[in-house]
Amino acid sequence: MLGAITGDIIGSIYEFIDTKPEMDFTLFTNESFFTDDSVLTVALADSILSGTVYRIKLLEYYHQYPDCSYGLRFHEWVNSKNPQPYNSWGNGSAMRVSPVGWAYNDLETVLQKAKESAEVTHNHPQGIKGAQSTAASIFLARTKNSKKEIKEFVEKNFEYNLDLDLEELRENYRFNESCQDTVPQAIFTFLISDSFEDSIRKAIYIGGDSDTLAAINGSIAEAFYGGVPQEIKVEIYKRLDERLMAVSANFIEKYMSYIY
Length: 260
Prior knowledge:
Blueprint: H1 2-11, H2 36-50, H3 54-64, H4 72-78, H5 92-95, H6 98-103, H7 107-119, H8 125-142, H9 147-158, H10 166-172, H11 183-191, H12 196-205, H13 210-225, H14 230-238, H15 242-256
Helix pairs in contact: 1-13, 2-3, 2-15, 7-8, 8-9, 8-13, 11-12, 11-13, 12-13
């Protein structure tokens, strides 16, 4: 889960720049900040910790953090009289799902809970698939499956093309908020990485919806590489407020303490 927050904060300043950053870009600046990706990730973690339905926590966190770059349709959903799923295939379902990949101890339950977390808003098949493939990748990574096994599972069960090319992506990939054109790229850049930091760097190197792409990528890399490195974690905690940090710490203590 902290990997998703890390990707979000590191990617926050690169999302709308005209020129894609080089691989040795600065990880943190004074302008690095958390966005809706982190807020809604923590909302799902809080939902799991408290036993509160996903919908209630998503609404609660939006109103506590109303100015965090949410998508237009999510704004409309929150502010409607009776919020209902809006058939979205956007990458918001995948960016927030990482707590699900940690909280449950069998793949079938992870897939079901990922579906439930998505369809509160993103009940389009692509929105559900994006959440499930991300959560499954996290589960498989934390349960010591190889990158080859993760890749084969995702390709077989979700039909994503993960045979991509890093430099070709950098040249041709553009800003995209759909699951189908964010999740495969996030998983691919993780698969070709050498470390947690390298995974985040490769995700941001290709451009696009950088904070969300790196959040999805980082959530899987955290599970595979055994946590977020301490020096990066220190920078992340500097940028979270008291509530987000407290809920994150509680979730880590309950579900992730063996890697931290």
